[in-house]
């Protein structure tokens, strides 16, 4: 029912300079996969097949990554290196990528509005690739999609954060209507220390209904002089309904060096090594069968 996922990916990634001087931050590898591919995997797992990428100057490698590289394919054809491309080939064959360039950096709300032409008039997901989310069963987007099926309104993913970190996030307050589900009555983008309405911070996963686009258009620049999705969502909450969902799983802030290192260690131990073991077992059983 939700087919499209929007990835705002025009930002500079200044916290990772000089690495991000000519390489998009979304292409930073976490073990052997670029950050954005984790987000795409999560969207596919949630049933989506249209990836709408809002890109900017110097971001060509994102497009190249989700495209066939004939020269490379030719070079490694018939070798065991081909195995390393199985997952990305599968993504390319089953998923549709569209791109639009954001010419000016005017905030997350503006980036989402830039994607309007790609999304059209239907509910859609938003993934901020910086926030890498993992869960052993359903991913965060899949959890949010099943919630959307019940409530049919915009949903933000939230997580409890220590009080001294609320100023880094959009923070919500609301009434708990069910386990882990809140009906939002207030939300503030990066509140000044001591003024946060709760410790429930928005993380980079959203399901948005398409009326959000008109609301963003009517939104004045807010925190940092930027057009904030948080401000547009507050209007939506006040005139209709927005839910906040305390998701199941782990989230790593790969926009910070510490979070990126934690994500790398976690993914190495829990995803990469497990996968290597599985491949070894598969090979072992195929050799036995031969
Ligand atoms: C953005 C949003 C903020 C949210 C955060 C999650 O901020 O504006 O509301 O809490 O993503 O990562 P940014 O981190 O891009 O400044």
From TrEMBL:
<dbReference type="InterPro" id="IPR029044">
    <property type="entry name" value="Nucleotide-diphossugar_trans"/>
</dbReference>
<dbReference type="InterPro" id="IPR005835">
    <property type="entry name" value="NTP_transferase_dom"/>
</dbReference>
<comment type="function">
    <text>May play a role in stationary phase survival.</text>
</comment>
<keyword id="KW-0808">Transferase</keyword>
<protein>
    <recommendedName>
        <fullName>UTP--glucose-1-phosphate uridylyltransferase</fullName>
        <ecNumber>2.7.7.9</ecNumber>
    </recommendedName>
</protein>
<dbReference type="Pfam" id="PF00483">
    <property type="entry name" value="NTP_transferase"/>
</dbReference>
<dbReference type="GO" id="GO:0006011">
    <property type="term" value="P:UDP-alpha-D-glucose metabolic process"/>
</dbReference>
<keyword id="KW-0548">Nucleotidyltransferase</keyword>
<feature type="domain" description="Nucleotidyl transferase">
    <location>
        <begin position="9"/>
        <end position="265"/>
    </location>
</feature>
<comment type="similarity">
    <text>Belongs to the UDPGP type 2 family.</text>
</comment>
<dbReference type="GO" id="GO:0003983">
    <property type="term" value="F:UTP:glucose-1-phosphate uridylyltransferase activity"/>
</dbReference>
<dbReference type="InterPro" id="IPR005771">
    <property type="entry name" value="GalU_uridylyltTrfase_bac/arc"/>
</dbReference>
């Amino acid at each position: 029912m939700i087919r499209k996922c929007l990835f705002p990916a025009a930002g500079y990634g200044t916290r990772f300079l000089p690495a991000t001087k000519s390489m998009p931050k979304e292409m930073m590898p976490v073990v052997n996969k670029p950050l954005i591919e984790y987000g795409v995997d999560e969207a596919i797992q949630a049933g989506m097949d249209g990836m709408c990428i809002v890109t900017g100057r110097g971001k060509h490698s994102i497009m190249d990554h989700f495209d066939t590289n004939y020269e490379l394919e030719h070079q490694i054809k018939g070798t065991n290196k081909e195995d390393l491309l199985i997952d990305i080939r599968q993504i390319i064959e089953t998923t549709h990528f569209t791109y639009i360039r954001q010419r000016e950096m005017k905030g997350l709300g503006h980036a989402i509005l830039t994607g309007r032409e790609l999304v059209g008039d239907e509910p859609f997901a938003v993934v901020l690739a910086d926030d890498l989310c993992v869960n052993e069963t359903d991913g965060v987007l899949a959890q949010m999609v099943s919630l959307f099926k019940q409530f049919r309104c915009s949903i933000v993913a939230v997580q409890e954060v220590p009080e001294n970190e609320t100023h880094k996030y959009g923070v919500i307050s609301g009434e708990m209507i069910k386990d882990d589900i809140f009906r939002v009555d207030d939300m503030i983008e990066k509140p000044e220390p001591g003024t946060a309405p709760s410790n429930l911070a928005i993380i980079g996963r959203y399901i948005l209904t398409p009326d959000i686009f008109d609301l963003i258009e009517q939104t004045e620049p807010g925190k940092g002089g930027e057009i904030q999705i948080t401000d547009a969502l507050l209007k939506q909450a006040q005139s209709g309904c927005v839910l906040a969902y305390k998701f199941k799983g782990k989230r790593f802030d790969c926009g910070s060096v510490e979070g990126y290192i934690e994500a790398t260690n976690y993914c190495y131990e829990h995803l990469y090594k497990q996968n290597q073991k599985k491949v070894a077992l598969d090979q072992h059983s195929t050799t036995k069968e031969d």
